[in-house]
From TrEMBL:
It holds the Pfam family SH3_actinomycetes. Gene3D superfamilies: CBS-domain, MgtE N-terminal domain-like. Residues 352-410 form the CBS domain. Keywords: CBS domain. SMART domains: MgtE_N. GO terms for cellular component: membrane. This is CBS domain-containing protein. It comes from the Bacteria. GO terms for molecular function: magnesium ion transmembrane transporter activity.
């Protein structure tokens, strides 16, 4: 094995790319698998949990790791694509050890684990060498003291806890993109998942729910009290909220819709009124809508909103009042690429693309796909018989409905030819 740093901290490696010998990225680091045998036996790091294309989690033995530095991990390129399944004798460093309450031998100090260092022993095995822990907070806004100690000085590392918190695991998840956070939450043990979900704020939980498989969405929402479940649904995009509510038992769905803010619930009910897999059911009712007197500067200011997806920010829709869906008559759409070439003080109405046909709400999924492909679009307006804008279908809405059921939890193909070679199991 080539030269590697003498010590690396596991939490800092989560999300790093994993490269093969040719320099091609084949996966991302998601967690580390360790064997915790006894307080007297130094914990051995068996391997990494890596995420490959399609969010499949696989096991990469540490014997396949050739180098780890602050920015990437290198492997031999020999990856076993079989889905990772945790064994009873194994513990996940990030998923299960972070936030575990431990003590320091010979003292009254206790705290929660916020990181763990690992390094190579003389045997070339990777082992846990140090534990970073934080004492409880002392008074208002005073963080507890932190300690980094040898693993042998720590007590309680082996013991699992019924009431284990989620502070430090939550901090790691908060740094991730919603799709990556969803992937980690999906693979957490049930108790840890519940603790993380309880600690996430409503907006962040909504972002994560949108990226989870349907069965996970229903399960998580089912464990929330009704008031919080309604609050989370309000934070979700209306089309995703409508899809999730449609999967719930009718009584539960009715209860949650009744607890939501009337305007938010109305958008969801309207989307649910359309036949499944039609433009009306797939659309978002909240595209960027402007009046006929809006300037190009106004349009550019609206699409700078960081909460807009790239596909929603690609078009602005110019309508007569009212400017909330269903709007007044749609006058046309303007492509942001075109607006960037025009003086900011001019009216958006002067740069409309009036040649493009609109989608009716009853358009099938195949018709929507053909429409976007024909006009080389990433979004398109959905308009009723009277010319009122009802919403917009984006290419990501379309893909969500066209991909096979359960696509979020399945791999479709390995990244590289090397990834198809058989790997080595964990010892």
């Amino acid at each position: 094995m080539s030269t590697a740093p003498s010590r690396v901290f596991a939490a800092r490696l989560v999300g790093l790319p994993i490269f093969d010998p040719q320099g091609d990225q084949v996966a991302k680091v998601r967690d580390f698998v360790v064997a915790l045998r006894s307080e007297a036996s130094q914990p051995r790091v068996l391997g990494m949990v890596a995420e490959v294309f399609g969010r499949r989690r696989i096991f990469v033995p540490m014997t396949r790791v050739t180098n780890i530095d602050s920015g990437q991990v290198y492997t031999t390129g020999l990856l076993n694509m079989r889905r990772f399944e945790q064994r009873p004798t194994e513990t996940l460093l990030i998923g299960q050890i972070l936030d575990r309450t431990v003590g320091i031998k010979g003292s009254e100090v206790t705290g929660t684990v916020f990181d763990v260092a690992m390094e190579q022993a003389r045997t070339r095995d990777w082992v846990l060498s140090r534990v970073a822990l934080q004492e409880p907070s002392r008074g208002f806004r005073r963080r507890g003291q932190t300690h980094v100690v040898e693993w042998s000085e720590v007590t309680g590392l082996i013991r699992s806890e019924e009431s284990q918190g989620a502070t430090h695991l939550l901090a790691a998840i908060q740094e991730m993109r919603p799709a990556d956070a969803a992937s980690m939450i999906h693979d957490l043990p049930p108790a840890r998942r519940s603790a993380v979900v309880a600690a996430l704020d409503d907006e962040r939980l909504a972002d994560v729910l949108e990226e989870l498989p349907e069965e996970d969405q229903v399960e998580i929402l089912g464990h929330l009290d009704s008031e919080r479940a309604a609050d989370v649904l309000e934070e979700m995009s209306p089309d995703d909220a409508a899809d999730l509510i449609a999967d719930l038992p009718p009584e539960t769905a009715a209860t949650l819709l009744g607890l939501m803010e009337p305007e938010e619930a109305e958008d969801v009910r309207r989307l649910m009124s359309y036949v499944e897999n039609t433009a009306g059911a797939m659309m978002t009712p909240e595209p960027v809508i402007l009046g006929p007197d809006a300037t190009i500067a106004d349009a550019l200011a609206h699409v700078r909103n960081p909460e807009l997806t790239p596909s929603l920010a690609a078009l602005v829709y110019v309508c007569r009042p009212p400017l909330e869906t269903p709007t007044g008559k749609l006058l046309g759409v303007a492509h942001i690429q075109r607006l960037l070439r025009e003086p900011p003080s001019t009216l958006v109405a002067g740069a409309l693309d009036v040649s493009m046909e609109n989608l009716p709400p009853e358009a099938s999924i195949d018709e929507v796909a053909a429409h976007l492909a024909t006009y080389n679009l990433v979004a398109a307006p959905v308009v009723d018989d009277n010319g009122h804008l009802l919403g917009a279908v984006t290419v990501d809405d379309l893909l969500d409905h066209m991909l096979p059921e359960g696509w979020r939890d399945r791999a479709t193909r390995p990244l590289t030819p090397q990834a198809r070679r058989p790997g080595v199991g964990r010892g």
